[in-house]
Write a structure and sequence with these properties.
With about 270 residues, the chain is an alpha+beta fold. The chain has 2 domains: about 70 residues, Arc Repressor Mutant, subunit A (Orthogonal Bundle); about 180 residues, Beta-Lactamase (2-Layer Sandwich), CATH 3.30.450. The protein has 10 helices and 8 strands. The strands form 2 sheets. Strands 5-4-3-8-7-6 form a 6-stranded antiparallel sheet, with helices on both faces. It has a two-stranded antiparallel ribbon with strand order 1-2. Helix 3 crosses helix 4 and helix 6 runs antiparallel to helix 10. About 30% of the residues are buried.
């Protein structure tokens, strides 16, 4: 056994393989061997060996034209397996459907991963105008947490130290007409959410999209997920959205939290 594995009890090869897979994201869908070898301080031959192995196992695919690599279907299988095994998704599903049926609007459920939210469930509405704000989102889709109602709802109810660490990592780039691009203003927004229990996205992510969200919380009070209700801006003003649907969104989130409480206790 290599000395590093004897000392730490971990596998250096596995760490490197996972580091390679983690290097891919929506802003960097294709990576070449030379590029990866520089990033991870590996020799080109070592990086090539890892790429070849991961490609043979289906975790990477080589682009025919550029010869660079992208994530393969086995990664997607792992992602959906993880999503489908989540207690919160199973517990929340009937509540989300009931909320979507009651209001006639699209309802979503997401968790926080790094500085992004990841969609783990969707209940789409067939109401006219809703399709225009779907943004091609699907289960597994990622969005920046700082400009989404669900992201803000989760961040507001994390331990302060964790929230501050994430804020320090956020690039507050403008995404929609009303994106909060100042960390101080964002902190003030999170304080308002903690008081009201409802987060608002008023065209912060994209033009025409409004949504409200409420956190799914563990017994300790920490947010483990969030649900939102999304509308097109011509349907409801921000004030009417909160007044009409804020209570039912928070009630649904509370019901899901109670159902998950015995499984998602203090950490």
């Amino acid at each position: 056994m290599p000395s590093s594995e004897r000392v730490t009890g971990t596998s250096r090869s596995l760490e490197r393989g996972l580091a390679i897979l983690s290097s891919f994201n929506s802003d960097r869908p294709l990576i070449g061997v030379s590029e990866l070898s520089r990033d991870l301080a590996l020799s080109r031959s070592t990086a090539h060996r890892y790429f070849t192995t991961l490609a043979q196992l289906g975790y990477l695919q080589q682009d025919r034209d550029s010869k660079r690599y992208r994530l393969g279907p086995r990664v997607l299988d792992l992602g959906f397996s993880a999503i489908n095994s989540m207690d919160v998704r199973e517990i929340a599903a009937p509540h989300l459907r009931e909320l979507a049926d009651e209001t006639g609007y699209t309802v979503n459920l997401a968790i926080l991963e790094g500085t992004d939210v990841v969609y783990i469930e969707r209940c789409r509405s067939s109401r006219p105008g809703q399709r225009e704000i779907d943004l091609d989102l699907h289960v597994g889709a990622r969005l920046p947490a700082y400009c989404t109602a669900m992201g803000k709802a989760i961040l507001a109810f994390l331990p302060e130290e964790q929230t501050e660490d994430l804020i320090a990592r956020i690039d507050f780039a403008p995404r929609g007409p009303n994106t909060l691009t100042d960390a101080g203003a964002f902190r003030e927004e999170l304080a308002r959410i903690r008081e009201s229990g409802v987060a608002l996205n008023d065209e912060e992510l994209a033009y025409g999209l409004r949504s409200i969200a409420s956190p799914i919380r563990s017994q300790s009070g920490e947010a483990v997920a969030a649900l939102n209700l999304a509308v097109q801006r011509t349907m409801l003003s921000a004030e009417d959205l909160i007044a009409r649907f804020g209570p039912v969104v928070t009630r649904t989130a509370r019901a899901i939290s109670l159902g998950t409480g015995h499984r998602l206790g203090p950490r």
